[in-house]
Amino acid sequence: MYARIIVAIDLENFAQGSALLARASKLLDAGGELRLVHVLEEVPGYIAAELPGDLAERRRAEAMVELRSMFDPASGLRIVPEVRRGGAAAQIIAAAEDSGAELIMIASHKPGFGDYFIGSTAARVIRHARCSVLVDR
After folding, report:
1. Alpha-carbon distance 48 to 54, whole Å?
2. Which of 62, 69, 2 is CA-nearest to residue 36?
3. Which bin fits 76, alpha (ψ -120 to 50), beta or left (φ > 0)?
4. Edge-to-edge order in the sheet of strand 132-136
5. Alpha-carbon gap, residue 33 to 44, rounded angstroms
6. What are the φ/ψ torsions at residue 39 (nearest 5 degrees)?
7. CA–CA distance, 72 with 124 (Å, rounded to integer)
8. How many domains does the chain have?
9. Which structural domain range is residue 123 located in?
């Protein structure tokens, strides 16, 4: 169905991400590519000044290890893990545009009161993505 799929992974919800990856693998064309994208939010400068200088790189390396643990390299699927920094919605959309993805898959939670004013990551991706978006609840 799709040659390139972005699967947005929140590593704090590992089980939900694994389920999303399983669903994505069923929608992928033979020879297609799944790109697992996790976004690390930027730490404000006034906080970053008090943290170890290599913290950002360590967080990125740890996230990459967790992403790689989500799939079996021998599965025959072409899966590319990717860790980005910045705002989650903007970076997920940028990853889709950079890779020419035809579909973004993202998990969502039931919206709370705060989401009606601020908007969740999934809602922002839906509003601004140029490709199809599948939201899993």
Report:
1. 10
2. 69
3. left
4. 78-85, 28-40, 2-8, 103-107, 132-136
5. 34
6. -115, 125
7. 31
8. 1
9. 2-136
Alpha helices, H only, 6-111? 14-27, 45-48, 55-68, 88-99
pTM of the model as a whole: 0.88
What CATH number is attached to the domain comprising 45? 3.40.50.620
Tens digit of each residue's pLDDT (9 = 90 or more) over 68-96: 999 988 888 999 999 999 999 999 999 99
Cα separation, 133 vs 137, in Å, equals 13
User: Directed axis angle between helix 121-128 and helix 88-99, to 10°?
Assistant: 40
Q: Please, how many CA atoms are within 13 Å of residue 102, restricted to the half-sphere of its CB?
A: 10
Q: Phi and psi dihedrals of 120, rounded to 5?
A: -80, 170
DSSP-derived 3-state class of residue 73: helix
Using the 8-state DSSP alphabet, how is residue 76 labeled? S
Q: Cα–Cα distance between 101 and 95 in angstroms, integer?
A: 8
Residue % of the chain over a pLDDT of 90: 69
Closest CA to 22 of 31, 9, 11: 9
